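Purpose: get a first structural picture of the assembly so the mutagenesis plan has something to point at.
Setup: two entries, given in the order below. No constraints added.
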Amino acid sequence: MGITDWIEIGRMDELGRMDTPAHRLDARAKAIVTLAFIVVVMSFPRHDVSALTPFLLYPIALISLGRIPVGYLARKILIAAPFALFIGIFNPLLDRTPVTTIGTVAISGGWVSFGSIMFRFFLTVGAALALVACTGMNRLGAALERLGVPRVFVVQLLFLYRYLFVVSDQAGKMKRSAEMRSSGRPLRLRVYGSMIGHLLLRSMDRAERVYRAMVARGFDGEVRVLRPSSFVWSDAIFVAGCLLFFVSARLWNLAEAFGRLLTGGAM
Amino acid sequence: MHMADALISPAVGGTMWAISGGLIAYCANKVKTSIRDNLVPMMGVLGAFIFAAQMINFSIPGTGSSGHLGGGLILTALLGPYAAFLVMASVLTVQAFFFADGGLLALGCNIFNLGFFPAFVAYPLIYRAFVKGQYGTSRAWVGAIIAAVVGLQLGAFSVVLETKASGISELPFGTFVLMMLPIHLAIGVVEGLATAAVVSFVARARPEALQTAPASEASVSLRPVLIGLAIAAVIMGGVASWFASTHPDGLEWSMAKVSGKEELESPGDGIHKSLAEVQERTAFLPDYGFKSGEAAPETATPAEHAAAPEPEPWPAVNAGTSVAGIVGGLMTLALACLIGIALRARSIQRTCGNG
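Result (structure tokens, whole complex):
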């Protein structure tokens, strides 16, 4: 996890505070629809590719309505890709049954399922990142609380998020000063232990100060989460429309029907 | 070690969501009744600390590579298992939200694999038993390494189980285990070294910090551990036997018969391999349509499979369907992009109009 990642998370935070049609949707509605999206996408049999293509519409709609820079999101998705790639690449090696042909080239089942895994990876990761980018952590936290996630956990998420920037800034400074003194040599374990230990003690001191400041402002052990948005009829239409689309795209292969229409009904 | 959504089936993802959700609710309840008010800011800041600590690497002696702190063990040492589990869960959630490190459907799996084992198994059963409050001694170093290794091995093994139960990857069980466990043995040693180094520093610089976890919380009772493991085992067993025992319906069984391909099958691979093969054959039916219940294709016993005759040319190759699927898929992608461009233009227009 390098310094650049922290600039990235700051960018994500900025995106979350924009005001667009996608941002104005209720966070609960977006959270529910995104989760439903991922479940439906992952419920397809593993050799489907074309039936999955209509699902691209949902992340694209969120990204476009939320005016999220596509290149930025695509780069984030690519950074996360190695795990799926690493596990998925075994499918073409292990499953060599030819299942379809393009021209004269036979395509094996493994390559089809590998393509399916990678496409699903782009869909699910894209949808999750788009959700966060057009909701922001604070609204998302409030939505989670209203959806029944334990308050203690929601408060923990928001606290963690708030101090992420502060503590990592401190860590970045310590890292830089250590690098300057050691002329770029990697840290030895003993030095590492003291450095991280110092960071830990400073963090704990900070928590103590934060706690005192909270008590001074009337903290009674209960944290109130702000609830900025309310669920209005346009949110209900958004949820219903998306779910209807997911269900119909799950039941019928819309892409193939479309293709048949274009190629003059080969079936 | 963070699992991605693309390799998880909804059944496995949902099950692990339920288990991790239950654990979060249980721990949240425990933390709420705790007398330590400052636990709330402490947990939040320490979660941020775990993130920040991962920015700094140390060189691993004798190798050219470097490692960093994972965090589960040290959090448990500082906060006790319940609060530490919540902090790990929140760290993993933020990683999934902002770094796409592990997916949303896979979040339950990741919280269980990386949060449950260090907090409720490795720390109370191994680390505490070894170290007994003597931080900085060689005992403490050995204990930290063993605890970290065991925690990560259990986590890695459940990654394998969850991936196999999802049935999306073709990797055979044995190969997958042989791939995951040695890698996580190394990661575990690094994690143990990093934890011990930090703990021994804190023990010297500010010993009272390590005793902040109240005794009643630190001595975790075995009950939640056993209940958690039992639920996971029952569900995993249930999923496995459900895949193994149901019989395929006639159509799928005959499909399997005309297109068997045992010569690709290595003998020791067992049920999952043959299940996987039957599924991959049946998933590509000539009509290419939706089949209700993906569970059905996953069902065949090895005996039935072995009865299949020599392979014949693949029956499902139908140029018409393939072309329609490919053309339709490509056109749908193009259409989705066009709609996206139109929506963006509209979104900008509307905001400008409002402003």
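The beta strands of chain A are 98-102, 105-108.
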